Each structure stands twice: as structure tokens, then as C-alpha cells.
Amino acid sequence: MAFKEIGKITESRYSRIRDKIITLDGIYNLAKTVQEEYSQNLEKDKYQSISFTAICFDDSRYESEDLSLFSKDSILNKKRVESINISYSSSALKLVIDIDLRHGNAAYDYGNSIRVKGGNSVWVNGIIKKLEETVSSFTPQNTFVRKYKVWLNIIFGLSLGWFFLTIYSYILSFIPFTPKKDTAEWIILLQRICKKYPLVEHALMALLGFPVTINPAISFTNKLYSLWPRIEIQIGPEHTFIESRRRRYILGAFVLVALPLLLSFISSFIVNK
Asked: Chain-centre distance of CA 48, in angstroms?
């Protein structure tokens, strides 16, 4: 791409990458765009540099100046990749392209970004747009847990509270109990209401158990949150995609256990009503 430098002024553009599932094909397309810029400017600056880097979870590191690192028969297909960097720079032309991707929920999206710098605004904006279009074609990550994290904490807290007190009440039912003659009238009234309206009883059990179970509920929601990281790099053998495997396990547990229990509870409530 032909361009003309404007004095000593350079422009930088920064683009965050969020909520994406990164595959080897996607990385190859990003690297290909950068490689094309390198090839076009090779005659203008023979000292320019380009590098492709991949760091894996087993602490191995692979670097190359060739796109073959991200090809289908690459060594990376046998590894679980943790982070990727694609870098190009030309001192003579004052050009910089830097793409950094890290698996997980990085604080403030650190390490998940595209940075383009150059002395020509048209070039800078053109390259950043190309790269953003490639990123937009990546599979989007599910953000349901992140969006509704507070509500999930409350729902899980109430559900666990109800379950905890249901089990507790069931255990107490085996212990002989004779009500006192001086039992408060409001307790007797509450017992009558709960007996007449089972839904009120279940709601009270959930609310009373909530203070005890809110902390376990928050821990459970945080575990779910970690299964849908902002950036999920799926490069390597499929069995190493831990988050993806655990999501399937949770879905299976919900379909086979939680859903039948929920339907059973609803049907028993309707029958008793």
C-alpha cells in the first residue's frame, strides 16, 4: 500500500478484543494480513521485522517469521496455546502492528488488543479496519453469565437455601416434637398459611436459607463465569479445551439431573394445589 509520511507526526490506533473464541484459522487470517504488509514494504525497508509467537500452557514457546507457525499441520495443533503475539515493525517507514491475545479473563482486557501505529492516517485506519473485520468473523463468546451474574447469585442462593432447609426439615421430621401450649399466635397463623399455600412455605424456606447459602452460590457463579472466558483460545487437541469440556458436563448434568428435579417439583406443586 503506497503512502506518504506527514512530517514527524505518527498516529496510533488501539482496538480491544473481547468475547471471542480464537481458532487456528482465525489466527492464520490475522497473521496473513500482517504478512502481506511486510511483503509489500520489503523493498522499501529491508531491515523491517515480523514475528509470530505462541506460548503454550506447558511453558513451551514457539517463534517464527513465517506463517507456517499457524498452518493446519503446525506443531501448535499438538499443544494447548495460552497466548499469541503477532508483531510487525519498520523503523524506516515508522510502521508498527502489534496483536496480542491471551486466554482467560484478563483484568481490564490486558493483552487482548490490536495496536497499529504509522505516519500515514489512511494506512493506519485501513489496517486497523482490516484486522477488526477479521476479528469480527471469529465465533462470539457466550456472555450470559457475565451479564446476569448478580441475578444468578440471587437465584442460586435462593435455590440452595430452599434445598438446604428442605433437607433440614426432612431430617427434623424424624424427631418427635410436641408443640407447646403457649406457642405464639403468629407462628400458628404462619403454619396455617404455609399448609394452605405450599408456595408460601417454599418461598419462606428459600429466604431463610439465603443468608447461609449466598456465599456458596457466589462461588458457584464464579466457577461458571470462568467457563466462558473473555478470550478463549481453542488451539491444540480438542481434549485440552478444558472450559469447553466442562460446559458440556454442566449441560449434561442439567439435562439429566436438574431439569427432571425441577419438572418433578413443578408437577407435584400443581397436583397438591
From this structure: 36
Closest CA to 82 of 54, 113, 62: 54
CATH 3.30.1220 fits domain 11-140: yes
pTM over 0.90: no
**Domain boundaries along the sequence of the chain:** 11-140, 144-272
Do 96 and 117 form a contact (C-beta atoms < 8 A)? yes
Cα torsion angle, 77, 79, 81, 87, sign: negative
Q: Where are the alpha helices (DSSP H) in the chain?
A: 24-40, 121-136, 144-147, 149-172, 185-196, 198-226, 242-253, 259-272
**What is 3-24 written as a DSSP string?**
----TT--EEEEEE--SEEE-H
178-204 average pLDDT score = 65
- CA 127 from chain center: how many Å? 27
